[in-house]
């Protein structure tokens, strides 16, 4: 029983499988039949149109000749003709000999080469029609020979020329040739047929003679005119091929064709001049004085060691644009193109500076000051200036690594120069005008360490403030140009601190100082509290040195090198807290250790929760592209683009009421004349990002032009 059930199950399974297979095959067959029917209905009209025979109405219609074209049933057709009269005459002679030969039979092949390409059915019909037409033409010739009206001196010759797949039919009359009457008359589908009335036949013959005589007269007047200008007005048939004119379509473009003119070069960055009208609103009209225009460039040139250390940031770049030799050539060309008077560079690799940059810049008339970063990093900052435009008055190389403070443990540097403008008068070069303080730095990149960035910036501002005070002590106004890579986003706390001179930082998250990354999603992060840095740094909350060494030295008298106040401020320094070995023990005097807790508490109380500085600074760029409203970008790599590079300067402010009352000639400061435009992130990505074949670094160069008023002397 079990085997029987097993066999039955197998049989049922086999039947079901076969039935399913049959259904699938039937569906496939049905689908193929439907596809075939659809293809038949789709291609049948096209086949009928390509291989159809001319209709009877088409045969019986009579065309008319208008301006060299044949007008036939409302449509215009052009009959191809022989373009050379000499060829027609030669073919006419050949035709005369051919007409004297016996009439070809029905099986004679057609001379038309294109007929061979037609289907067999149409070729057969074409042969039958040609044979019938030849028989009718032979009958007509015999009847015309018996007509007594035709004289021996008159001859009518019909040239039937086959050329370029069509029939050429021309009728010619001449006197003087002895030919036995009419050799051939064209008759197609009832046109020019003979009738039973002799008078009608005679009138038709006379009309033909007049037409041919007029044709000969026209030909004799213009011998250079080709015979193919005259078209026989006979109806089309299968023995005559008619060609439709080809349709002419306009060019496949929506734009008008413009002839190329002078080739042009796309300028990705353009020079933008400051609007004079807006400047006149802010600044009152003053008496024109002598001025000096100078150009400043700030450029992070991307050190090759840092590029190779962070190759993942430049995976989108071709390998050739990452080579230093290629980038160096582009860099030097860009510097030469804009020809800045003052050049501030960041990420300058030390060996590249000494081997490639400094020799070339020296040949171009630059004097350079270079400061390498401390630690293991091989890059640094450089400030170069034209020796023909400025003279160096003072230089300060700053290192931000201060291990004794505990906070400043990063190896960043800065350079501060004091320059004096040079003016050439006749045969001598002399200093003229107020001095110019040029500062260049590269702050820490780490987005999470805003406290370190503020401390490094405070060192730079304190040094700039010291230079300004030294000039003020000599009765001079010092203008400032502050360049660098600040690793901070526009309009965020660090940027606001530079431009406004004030920052309330209490309990501010450290990542928010620069705004490079949004770390608000983290559950906890470091916050800022007063004081930001220890007193051992020697900088107050107003970003000034707590001890003005230059000032104290100028106020000293006699043989003392330092004042009493200055010595008191050194009593808690690390060296003063170490007891000398040979110090004599005096009870109550030298046996007491200094208590620094009270001074530390007083320092914390003095250090406010609001940072300030006294340097009036303003950014050259507005950080938004005019017109489009897109943000400007100064750096771009695979992780995105943003603005971190700036040129700050001390602007020329409007005069106050007190200054106007004393009739001051003008406000102090620099006047911004123009700047080199920046680009948007989308446009830089269209150039395959940075660096590329145009820009050699992952930063864009910043270029600005200023005007400095010189002294009256």
From TrEMBL:
Keywords: Membrane, Transmembrane, Transmembrane helix. SUPFAM superfamilies: DNase I-like (SSF56219). Gene3D superfamilies: Endonuclease/exonuclease/phosphatase (3.60.10.10). GO terms for molecular function: 3'-5'-RNA exonuclease activity. Residues 90-151, 193-223 are annotated as: Disordered. Residues 297-699 form the Endonuclease/exonuclease/phosphatase domain. Residues 129-140 have a biased composition (Low complexity). It holds the Pfam family Exo_endo_phos. The chain crosses the membrane at residues 33-51. Residues 93-103, 201-211 have a biased composition (Basic and acidic residues). It comes from the Eukaryota. This is Angel homolog 1. It comes from Poecilia formosa. The lineage of its organism: Eukaryota, Metazoa, Chordata, Craniata, Vertebrata.
């Amino acid at each position: 029983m079990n085997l029987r059930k097993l066999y039955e199950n197998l049989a049922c399974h086999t039947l079901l499988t076969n039935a399913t297979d049959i259904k699938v095959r039937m569906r496939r067959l049905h689908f193929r039949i439907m596809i075939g029917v659809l293809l038949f209905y789709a291609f049948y009209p096209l086949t009928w149109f390509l291989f159809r025979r001319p209709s009877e109405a088409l045969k019986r219609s009579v065309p008319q000749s208008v301006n060299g074209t044949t007008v036939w049933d409302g449509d215009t057709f052009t009959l191809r003709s022989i373009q050379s009269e000499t060829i027609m005459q030669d073919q006419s002679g050949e035709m005369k000999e051919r007409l004297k030969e016996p009439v070809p039979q029905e099986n004679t092949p057609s001379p038309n080469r294109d007929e061979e390409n037609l289907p067999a059915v149409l070729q057969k019909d074409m042969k039958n029609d040609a044979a019938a037409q030849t028989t009718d033409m032979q009958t007509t010739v015999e009847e015309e020979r018996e007509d007594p009206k035709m004289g021996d001196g008159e001859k009518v010759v019909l040239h039937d020329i086959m050329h370029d797949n069509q029939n050429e039919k021309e009728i010619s009359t001449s006197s003087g040739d002895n030919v036995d009457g009419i050799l051939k008359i064209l008759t197609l589908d009832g046109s020019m047929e003979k009738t039973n009335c002799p008078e009608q036949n005679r009138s038709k013959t006379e009309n033909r003679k007049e037409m041919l005589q007029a044709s000969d007269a026209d030909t004799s007047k213009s011998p250079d005119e080709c015979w193919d200008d005259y078209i026989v007005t006979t109806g089309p048939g299968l023995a005559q091929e008619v060609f439709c004119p080809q349709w002419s379509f306009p060019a496949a473009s929506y734009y008008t064709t413009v002839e190329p003119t002078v080739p042009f070069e796309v300028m990705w960055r353009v020079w933008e001049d400051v609007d004079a009208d807006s400047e006149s609103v802010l600044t009152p009209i003053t008496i024109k004085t002598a001025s000096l225009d100078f150009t400043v460039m700030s450029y992070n040139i991307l050190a090759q060691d840092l590029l190779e250390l962070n190759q993942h940031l430049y995976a989108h770049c071709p390998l050739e644009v990452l080579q230093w030799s290629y980038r160096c050539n582009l860099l030097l060309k860009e510097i030469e193109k804009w020809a800045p008077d003052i050049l501030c560079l960041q990420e300058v690799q030390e060996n590249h500076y000494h081997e490639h940059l400094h020799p070339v810049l020296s040949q171009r008339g630059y004097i350079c000051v270079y400061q390498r970063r401390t630690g293991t990093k091989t890059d640094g900052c450089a400030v170069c200036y034209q020796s023909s435009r400025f003279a160096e008055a003072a230089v300060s190389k700053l290192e931000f690594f201060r291990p004794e403070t505990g906070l400043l443990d990063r190896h960043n540097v800065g350079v501060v120069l004091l320059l004096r403008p040079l003016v050439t008068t006749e045969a001598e070069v002399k200093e003229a005008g107020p001095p110019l303080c040029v500062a260049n730095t590269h702050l820490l990149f780490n987005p999470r360490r805003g406290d370190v960035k503020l401390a490094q910036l405070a060192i730079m501002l304190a040094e700039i403030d010291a230079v300004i005070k030294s000039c003020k002590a000599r009765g001079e106004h010092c203008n400032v140009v502050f360049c660098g890579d600040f690793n901070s986003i526009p309009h965020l706390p660090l940027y606001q601190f530079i431009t406004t001179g004030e920052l309330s930082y209490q309990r501010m998250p450290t990542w928010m100082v620069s705004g490079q990354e949004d770390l608000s999603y983290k559950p906890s992060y470091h916050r800022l509290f007063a004081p930001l840095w220890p007193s051992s740094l020697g900088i107050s909350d107003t970003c000034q040195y707590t001890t003005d060494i230059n000032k104290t030295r100028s106020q000293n008298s006699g043989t003392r090198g330092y004042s009493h106040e200055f010595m008191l401020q050194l009593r808690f320094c690390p060296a003063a807290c170490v007891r000398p070995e040979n110090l004599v023990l005096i009870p109550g005097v030298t046996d007491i250790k200094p208590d620094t807790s009270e001074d530390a508490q007083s320092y914390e109380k003095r250090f406010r929760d609001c940072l300030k500085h006294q340097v009036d600074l303003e950014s050259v760029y507005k950080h938004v592209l005019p017109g489009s409203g897109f943000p400007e970008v100064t750096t771009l790599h695979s992780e995105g683009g943003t603005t971190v590079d700036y040129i700050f300067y001390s602007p020329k402010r409007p005069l106050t009421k007190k200054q106007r009352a004393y009739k001051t000639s003008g406000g102090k400061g620099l006047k911004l004349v123009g700047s080199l435009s920046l680009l948007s992130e989308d446009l830089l990505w269209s150039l395959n990002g940075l660096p590329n074949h145009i820009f050699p670094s992952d930063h864009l160069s910043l270029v600005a032009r200023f005007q400095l008023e010189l002294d009256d002397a």
